[in-house]
């Protein structure tokens, strides 16, 4: 309910500023809304409040729903003229070269509307600093033909955390190039992939027994915001 009220308050600000519709992108300062729909996400932010390295898939910390973290990040977004329009609880699996094993991370994929690249970076940096993270992953949605597009996101249904973890560990090329990914509670894999690695990602998804959903592919600018 609190998150819904935050969205309503910020949306009313955009409406009063004349940003709730019209043709072409609208902007509040440096922040840009999707044309005709200020509630449509223009960016994603992947983050956690955890600083520990977790290697045990049964670790209790991987059951944290991050409810307070969701509200806190939403408030940070609002401070930077971003509109939080929900988030997805995910379980991240990443390959650690240092430990030579998979690590796990409970996190959220935040969906942000009416946020431009500069404000997205500021939001991510504040989250990184407040929660003492090495980096925070952001993805600014762009047209497929945009010269700034360097990555894609794709969702693959029917892939659970264990299957993704086992596949990543068994494939030295995929774990080096893709590094990791996130899996929703419903068993949907989310990958953020460099454009140069799309074919590799497609082959990896096929090896997992998944189906590459071309309709879910979104082009954009990927950035790991760090100190």
Give a verbal description of the structure:
The protein starts with a helix and ends with a strand. Helix 1 runs parallel beside helix 2 and helix 2 crosses helix 3. It contains 6 helices and 10 strands. The protein has 227 residues and is of the alpha+beta class. It is globular and about 45 Å long. The strands form 2 sheets. It has an 8-stranded antiparallel beta barrel, surrounded by 5 helices. It has a two-stranded antiparallel sheet with strand order 1-2. Strand 1 and strand 2 form a beta hairpin. The longest helix has 15 residues.
Largest sheet, if any?
A: 8 strands, antiparallel, barrel
The number of helical runs is 6
What is the radius of gyration? 18 Å
Report the uncertain regions. Answer: 1-7, 9-31
Number of DSSP E strands: 10
Mean pLDDT comes to 89
Which structural class should the secondary elements be placed in?
Answer: alpha+beta
Within the largest sheet, what's the order of strands?
A: 3-5-4-8-9-7-10-6
C-alpha end-to-end distance: 34 Å
Helix proportion range: 25-40%
Order of helices and strands: HEEEHEEHEEHHEEHE
Give me some keywords for this one.
227 residues; alpha+beta; eight-stranded antiparallel β-barrel; two-stranded antiparallel ribbon; 6 helices; 10 strands; 33% strand; disordered N terminus
Q: Can you lay out the helices and strands and say which pair or pack?
A:
Blueprint: H1 2-16, E1 26-28, E2 31-33, E3 41-47, H2 67-79, E4 83-96, E5 101-113, H3 117-130, E6 135-141, E7 151-157, H4 161-170, H5 172-177, E8 180-184, E9 188-194, H6 198-207, E10 218-226
Antiparallel strand pairs: 1-2, 3-5, 3-6, 4-5, 4-8, 6-10, 7-9, 7-10, 8-9
Helix pairs in contact: 1-2, 2-3
């Amino acid at each position: 309910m609190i998150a819904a009220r935050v969205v309503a308050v910020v949306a009313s600000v955009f409406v009063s500023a004349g940003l709730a519709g019209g043709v072409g992108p609208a902007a509040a300062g440096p922040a840009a809304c999707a044309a005709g729909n200020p509630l449509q996400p223009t960016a994603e932010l992947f983050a956690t409040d955890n600083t520990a390295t977790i290697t045990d898939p049964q670790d209790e910390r991987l059951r944290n729903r991050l409810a307070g973290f969701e509200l806190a990040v939403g408030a940070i977004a609002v401070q930077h003229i971003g509109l939080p329009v929900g988030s997805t609880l995910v379980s991240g699996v990443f390959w650690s070269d240092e430990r030579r094993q998979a690590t796990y991370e409970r996190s959220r994929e935040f969906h942000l509307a009416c946020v431009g690249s500069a404000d997205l970076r500021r939001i991510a940096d504040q989250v990184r600093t407040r929660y003492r993270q090495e980096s925070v992953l952001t993805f600014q949605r762009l047209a497929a033909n945009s010269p700034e597009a360097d990555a894609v996101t794709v969702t693959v249904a029917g892939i659970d955390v264990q299957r993704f973890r086992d596949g990543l560990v068994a494939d030295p090329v995929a774990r080096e190039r893709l590094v990791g990914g996130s899996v929703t509670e419903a068993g949907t894999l989310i990958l953020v992939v460099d454009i140069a690695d799309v074919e590799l990602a497609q082959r990896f998804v096929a090896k997992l027994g998944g189906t590459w959903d071309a309709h879910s592919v979104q082009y954009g600018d990927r950035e790991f915001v760090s100190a």
